[in-house]
Amino acid sequence: MLASAIAWTLLFAPPDAVPPASGPVSAAEPPASADDSAAVSEPPTLLPPGTLVLAPALAGPYQLFDTEGLPVGAPITVGEGAKPPELQLPPGVYYLHGPAAVDPVVVASGLRLVWDGERVLPVEVWAAAQEARAQEARAQEARVAAELERAQQVPPPSAPAPTWRAWASPLASTLVPGVGQVLNGQGYKGTGLLFGTVGTTIAAAALFRLGNDGTRPLPAEYARLIGYGVFSSAAPLLWIYAITDAYRVATNKEVEPKLDHQLRLSVTRMMTVGFRADTRRPGFYDDWSVSLMGQATRRLSVGVSDLSVKPGGSTGPQVWQLGARLDYRVFDRKRLWIDLAAGSILQVAANGGRAPLDPDAARPRRTTKFGAVPYAQLDLRYFVLDRVSLDLTPRVAIPLTTRYYSANRALPRYAAELELGVSLSTYF
């Protein structure tokens, strides 16, 4: 009876009254804790929205879409000069469809960003860029206003010069240097060119006539020869300048050097002062030549140079001369060009072979010698017309053999030379 009563009681007892089972609890079914119940019941945390300012350069309608292709809000119209619209959006990636293209934009939580039509920037960076553009625009407007003010202050152009001056002025300066400038209304310039040309011509003639008998001190003789070379070269340069300047002023043209020329033809006079056999009587050495230089690129020219023939007379050798030169222009601003050049001169000297005065004497044997003179030089070119320049050319040369000049004069080999050249160049 007792056993039956206990079994009946356990069968109909409520769950709370059932004692816990003895033994270990299974790990597969752990009892639920109070902390787990609390974590499940908390709502999810929402991030604060971000601000996106639409400030594209291209005005028109824009529509924002999310990553699933669904429109976000109504279409937005961005107008020129209007205040950029601001959107409050949850953080994430969006796609902005505009008049020109579709651009991805990013919205960050709690940040204020600007889309300028190309990229998303912090509002501070965008504002600084806008201020810089505004300052540049104001500066440009100020420059334009200043240019307009200066243009209004410029006096109206004078009446065009008579057409007869285009040929009369250069012709007058050809006959008498400076007279063409006087015809053009430039009396002071014409007077200066006249006295400059006549003065240098007289000075060169006077220094040449002084001669040297060996009694003059050596420094004074060097000064005489150098002065003769400078004055005798300056006189024709001033004369040529007077002719070309008279034409330029008469035609009212600005000089624009021909950068894209194909060929340059130059007539050059090189000169130097050096010792002769009598060391108390240094000699003046000069050399007239022609050069033809072709322009390979905008700054590089190559060609034949120093072409000349030097008659030997009754005693000296007959000399044929030619050379090759590489020329690179390092500076060209307006009317001034500066070139660096390197080259070499080849001389062929033929001596003898003339019949002697005595018919019974043996005819001298004809000899031929070859020589080379490498050099480096600097060309300073000043354009007096679009296709005409006056050049000043310092040159350093070292002859590997005897160097022949005009007037049957020569310098020995390995005698380093510092030459000064003047040229008239024409560009084709």
The CATH topology assignment of the largest domain is Porin
**Count of runs of 4 or more consecutive helical residues:** 7
Taking all Cα atoms into account, the compactness measure Rg is 48 Å
The string of secondary-structure elements, in order, is: HHEEEEEEEEHHHHHEEEEEEEEEE
Provide the residue-averaged pLDDT.
83
Cα end-to-end separation: 141 Å
Q: How many domains, as an integer?
A: 3
Please tell me what the overall shape is: elongated
The biggest sheet, with number of strands, parallel, antiparallel or mixed sense and barrel status, is:
8 strands, antiparallel, barrel
Helical amount: 25-40%
Beta content comes to 35-45%
Find the count of extended strands (DSSP E, 2+ residues): 18
Q: Which CATH C-level class of the largest domain is it?
A: Mainly Beta
Strand order, biggest sheet?
9-10-11-12-13-14-15-18
- Low-pLDDT residue intervals, each spanning 5 or more residues: 1-41
* Level-2 CATH architecture of the largest domain: Beta Barrel
Structural class: alpha+beta
